[in-house]
Automatic annotation (TrEMBL):
InterPro entries recorded: MORN
Protein name (database record): MORN repeat protein
UniProt keyword Repeat, yes or no: yes
Pfam families (UniProt xref): MORN
Origin species: Paramecium primaurelia
Transmembrane segments: none
Domain of life: Eukaryota
GO cellular component, one term: cytosol
Repeat listed as a keyword: yes
Alphabetic keyword roster: Repeat
């Protein structure tokens, strides 16, 4: 524990204000989600990063563990049935495109135009609208080693509203731009986590809400898949942190409230109490103190202390 002032030392352990619990070091390594201090480890159990197609190359896409199992009878049946359905429905012309891809469907002036199906030379399959040999309009794209995308296309890339279904069962529904998740969208991971909010270039970015499968949730600002800016983080037992973050760590001003009503109002750095702070027990008794790297180093009995920045409540 950090050094305490003489006034703090005079407090009995039986008094309402539990200095010990307020003075624990908030180490990232502690796994105890029921601890009475600030569950930093619980908070940094990393939220999932959404998969994307940024590293996609012709004929090669994702790692083996994220590929479709070509021996999966359920998946194989889905693709085969789709192919059979198209063959029965559309018996248009068949042409070979400049890159070696094979197209079957409507052909106008020697080019793929209208509804059809495209077998790309990298193993991908597309079914839907095509204009002058370019995927454009509405359709379904089956990545050979990746997701199935169903939705709108522009100039050969997903753009507009669409749905992306990944091999592990994860699903994204929302807006796309230039082939990437951009705008508003909802992502559901196969593990049970959910994010709904803003996206930018396949990353969680802007305002949004992330829910963990164990009951935790965070609502607030994001920057490139990290909690960054003002936000509110809630635990399943009722405690919460309402404050500022920098790159997944509490940083700036914030208020931490325990399930029994006691709270800390003050400043943070790198996920730990750092700077001036006000401790309030569940009966409303106050102590003003100074923290360094998560340790209480001094405190006083000042009661007329206003530590919440002006306009803070209205910014929530």
């Amino acid at each position: 524990m950090g050094q305490e002032c003489q006034k703090c030392k005079a407090y009995s352990v039986k008094e309402e204000f539990d200095i010990k619990n307020m003075d624990e070091e908030l180490g990232d390594e502690s796994p105890d989600v029921e601890q009475s201090f600030l569950d930093e480890e619980d908070e940094v159990k990393k939220h999932n990063r959404p998969p994307c197609l940024d590293n996609y190359k012709r004929g090669r896409m994702l790692g083996k563990e994220e590929c479709y199992d070509q021996n999966d009878p359920k998946l194989s049946a889905t693709i085969e049935n789709k192919e059979m359905a198209l063959t029965e429905e559309q018996r248009g012309e068949e042409i070979i495109l400049a890159d070696g891809s094979r197209y079957q469907g409507n052909v106008v002036d020697g080019k793929a135009n209208g509804k059809g199906k495209l077998w790309l030379n990298n193993g991908d399959i597309y079914e839907g609208d095509i204009i002058n040999n370019i995927i454009q309009g509405n359709g379904v794209y089956y990545y050979n080693r990746g997701p199935i995308y169903s939705g709108q296309f522009l100039n050969g890339k997903s753009e507009g509203i669409g749905k992306e279904m990944w091999p592990d069962g994860s699903i994204y529904e929302g807006q796309f731009k230039n082939g990437k998740k951009q705008g508003q969208g909802l992502y559901k991971w196969s593990q049970g986590c959910i994010y709904e909010g803003e996206w930018c270039e396949n990353m969680i970015h802007g305002q949004g809400r992330y829910e963990w499968s164990d009951g935790r949730c965070y609502q607030g600002n994001w920057n490139k898949n990290q909690m960054h800016g003002r936000g509110k983080y809630l635990w399943k037992d009722g405690k919460y942190y309402d404050g500022e973050y920098e790159y997944d760590k509490k940083c700036g001003f914030g208020i931490f409230v325990w399930a029994d009503g006691k709270q800390y109002q003050g400043y943070w750095f790198d996920g730990k109490q750092h700077g001036k702070g006000l401790m309030i027990n569940k009966e409303g008794k106050k102590k003003f103190g100074e923290w360094v790297n998560g340790k209480l180093i001094s405190c006083s009995e000042e009661t007329n202390v206003q530590i919440i920045p002006e306009g803070w409540i209205n910014k929530a």
